[in-house]
Amino acid sequence: MKANHRYHPSQIVMHSAMALLIVLTFAFGKYVHGLPLSPAKFQLLSYHKWAGMLVLLLVAIRILLRLLKGAPPLPASMSPHARLAAHAGHLALYALMIAVPLSGWLMSSAYDIPVVMFGIWQLPDLIAAAPELAPRLKGLHELLNNALLLTVVLHVGAALKHHFIDRDGLLQRMSLRR
By the 8 A CB rule, do 107 and 141 touch? Predict the structure, then answer.
C-alpha cells in the first residue's frame, strides 16, 4: 500500500493511544460506579475525571491533525452506502469522544463537585450547581458512554470485516508498518 494511502504516523499513534485510553476509562468508570460511597471512591472518581479530560484534549488534537493531515482515500471497491456508513461512523465516534467527557464535566458541575486535574488545577464549572439536574446528567453520561461503546464495537467490527472478508487493505491505513 502506498504511503499516501495511510494515515500520518502521528494520527496512527493518537488513534492507538486514544483507543486504549477510552477503553480503560470506560472500564474504570464502570468499576468505580459500582463502589460504595466513600473517600476512596471520590479519589478514584477524580482519576476517572482526569482521564476523561485527557480524552477531550486528545480528541481536539486528533481533529486538528485530521484537518492538517487529512485522511487516506477509502478503498475504491467500497459502495456508496458503505462510504456513507464509514463517514457517519467516524463522525459519531468524534461526536461521542467530545460529548462523553463534556457530559461528565457537566454532571460534576451540577453535583457541585469540581474537576481538579491532577489534584492541583481546578477546571471551571460548566454550569452552576443544580441538584435537580445532576441525576439526569448522570443518566445522559451513562447513555453516551454506552453509545460510544457500541460505536467502538461497530468500528472494530467493520475494520475486521474489511481486513478478513473484503481483504481491501483498509485496516493497513492505520498501520505504522510499511
Answer: yes
Predicted pLDDT at 5? 86
Q: Per-10-residue mean pLDDT for the chain, 178 residues long?
A: 78 97 97 96 96 98 97 94 97 98 98 95 98 98 98 97 94 86
> What does the alpha-carbon distance between residue 174 and residue 153 come to, in Å, rounded to a whole number?
17
* Residue with cell string 464509514: 86
Distance CA 153, CA 50 (A): 24
This prediction has a pTM of 0.94
Q: What's the CA gap between 107 and 35, in Å, rounded?
A: 18
- Positive or negative, the CA dihedral 178, 97, 149, 83 is negative
DSSP-assigned beta bridge partners for residue 110: none
